[in-house]
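Hi Y.,

Following your request, here is the sequence exactly as I used it, all 237 residues.
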Amino acid sequence: MKKLLIILALLIAGQTASAQLFSKERIKNNENFDKKRWSWGFFLGFNSYDYKFQYEQDLEDILTETTLGFNVGLISNLRINDHLDLRFEPGLYITQRNLVYDESYFQGLEFNDSDLLREVKATYIHFPLLLKVSTKRLNNFKPFIVGGVSTALNLSSNEKNPDDNSAGEFRSKRNMYFYELGFGVDFYLFWFKFTPSIRGVFAFNDEIVRDVDPNSPWTGNVNRMKTRGIFINFTFQ
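Below is the corresponding structure, written out as tokens. Let me know if you'd prefer a different format.
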């Protein structure tokens, strides 16, 4: 599903861009849209979050099963000049990751099948501050790249829970910090501007909360666990 959405978004963008480039039609929709100092909008989209692990010892990797999540949020855009915009895009991002452990982590210990799986649910309130760098507008579309930093508050965090994995609770931190990179295309339609975009997010800080037992099979071999993810957003301004 994730790959299909990415391919579909690229095909739509490519076909529309091709039509705009080679069509004789030169009438511009919303010709003065980008001359506004401030503009506003909202976005809907999908996400797929993953974890990148660094280990203390060379054991089998902890596998991360990703799921397709949902995004929704608001946009405020400050025009700097014809090619630069500063954007603030607060949003709600809902996702789940399943961690699958190899049996080798439990050598010498009694365990059952449920010990090999940990479900990590997250509901992030995401606050990105982004710089958007655009090309010159071509007919009714304008490609761009975007990058910046963000912070997120995980409402599903159980960081303060006294129970750990020995009681079935895999704990993750509440506050996260990221850098972000992406690209997209602005399409100027008759009534509004529509923008499909793809963005990658990469955490600066370690997210795992370690178990009380330093030799815990779930957290003892993890040096760092960092979130990374892909966003596919559809923006309406």
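The first strand starts at residue 38 and ends at 55.

Thanks again,
Q.
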